[in-house]
Write a structure and sequence with these properties.
Length: 469
């Protein structure tokens, strides 16, 4: 040691300085490499975080309600919502509902020939005789439709519903699932099953609003509606939540809808009450004429109301319940139209005087789905000639000289010609409203139908052009 010190002490000042510079250079190089590594790791982490976080949501529709409604508690129904990272990390994308023993279930589903695995699974389960003594559950994810995914699709459904059944202690055949989002991508079922325990632990009778947010995709606002009637012996509550914004066209259900009531109604009667109200509600709306692969409506009746059971469709309680159910269904259906992708106008199309109700429906849908009609509405152009075109292409019976077209209360065309009272300025002013009524009377019979749609703006293209990115 002494010799080494003596050797070092024999170096000149210039040599010592040179040695120090070499050491300093090595130290700087090491620090630079370390900093580069840290920066790379930080950048990768930031990039991953950015990629995992959902892209900014669409602006809230100008037609949206002022706020989410206050929903009454339906005894026997509990909700939970959470983030599973199905598509984006940090986004609430799973909803779980637990239904008490005694619950009757009814449903309606898309008629698409390319139905998603979850739709086929729900239909198969509802075809079985229901054991209402057992509890039930519903689990829904957004971000992935689990459609056109082959054998893997059903395996994913079995994994998710099996996980719910095990956690909640209900039969698997009483667990119903829905998925909404991108078509053709395998559902990461393990991400959903990983959060089922947390969801079960957070089930809450007042959680409907969070559940409604969890099932949103391109929706700009959560959708909810309710009604309460007085039954024989106590009140009956009905609560519904829904999602839907694009790929909306009649063929039941045109969106995801979950309606809950504490009424005591047997499954068969509940199904009849639901099915008879589809054509005037969910099958009477359209945004873009495209029917989804994944649409589902599930109606659950827990039977926990103190009111007497509804057993006769002709009874006063049954009629009151049916009216309230229709009200909730129509409210939710119209909210979907108000949240149509890029919509700025809510449009009601009223068709009367058709040879039949079926013809009235054809005409109404031809108008509501016409890109030319919808873009004219977006541009606030009172181009009633496009309505004439839509009537003519509908395939329904029509007579030019009996046709009458109205925008609001104004008659624009009748008896095969522009109406003598036609006022272009007044018609143009009317088109600036955000709620429009287009009336068509065919003058041929008593058939009638009303449907609801929205305008078609460039924003619709913007939303759908990068839906998967």
């Amino acid at each position: 040691m002494a010799k080494t010190d003596d050797k070092k002490s024999g170096l000149s000042d210039a040599e010592k300085l040179k040695t120090l510079k070499k050491k300093l250079k090595k130290l700087k190089s090491a620090l630079k490499e370390a900093a580069a590594g840290i920066e790379a790791r930080a950048g990768a982490a930031a990039g991953a975080a950015i990629g995992a976080v959902a892209k900014p949501g669409n602006p809230v529709s100008p037609l949206a309600p002022a706020r989410f409604p206050d929903l009454p508690v339906v005894e026997g129904v509990e909700f939970a919502a959470g983030a599973a990272g199905v598509k984006y990390k940090g986004r609430t994308d799973v909803m779980l509902v637990r239904l008490a023993p005694g619950t009757a279930i009814a449903g309606a589903f898309t008629k698409s020939s390319t139905r998603a695995a979850c739709v086929l699974d729900c239909q198969a389960k509802l075809a079985l005789k229901q054991d209402t003594a057992k509890g039930a559950a519903i689990i829904v994810n957004s971000g992935n439709a689990n459609a056109f995914t082959g054998r893997l699709g059903q395996e994913a459904v079995d994994t998710v519903t099996g996980g719910v059944a095990k956690t909640l202690g209900v039969p698997r055949e009483r667990v119903f699932s829905s998925s909404t989002g991108v078509i053709g991508e395998p559902l990461p079922a393990e991400r959903i099953t990983a959060v089922i325990g947390d969801l079960a632990a957070s089930l809450d009778v007042s959680g409907a609003a969070d559940a409604a947010r969890a099932i949103m995709t391109t929706d700009t606002f959560p959708k909810g509606a309710s009604a309460t009637i007085q039954g024989e012996g106590g009140p009956i509550n009905i609560v519904g939540i829904a999602k839907g914004s694009g790929m909306i066209a009649p063929d039941m259900a045109t969106m995801l809808v979950y309606i809950f009531t504490d009424a005591q109604i047997a499954p068969a009667m509940l199904q009849r009450m639901l099915s008879s109200r589809l054509d005037q509600t969910f099958n009477a709306i359209t945004v873009d004429s495209d029917t989804s692969t994944s649409d589902a409506l599930i109606l659950a009746a827990t039977g926990k109301s103190r009111a007497a059971p509804i057993t006769d469709l002709r009874s006063a309680p049954a009629r009151a319940f049916g009216k309230a159910l229709s009200q909730v269904m129509l409210d939710l259906a119209q909210q979907v139209v108000r949240d149509g992708e890029g919509a700025t106008k809510f449009v009601e199309v009223q068709v009367t005087g058709a040879a039949s109700d079926a013809d009235a429906h054809r005409v109404a849908m031809a108008i509501a789905n016409s890109p030319l009609v919808k873009t004219a509405i977006a541009g606030e152009d009172a181009n009633w000639g496009r309505v004439v075109m839509a009537v003519g292409k509908s395939g329904a019976k029509a007579d030019r000289d009996r046709l009458c077209i109205r925008f609001g209360d104004m008659v624009l065309a009748e008896k095969g010609w522009r109406a003598p009272s036609y006022d272009e300025a007044a018609a143009s002013a009317y088109m600036k409203r955000d709620h429009l009524i287009i009336g068509v009377d065919l003058g041929l019979g008593k058939g009638q139908r009303t449907v609801w749609t929205c305008d078609l703006t460039h924003r619709y293209i913007d939303i759908n052009a990068d839906y998967r990115s």
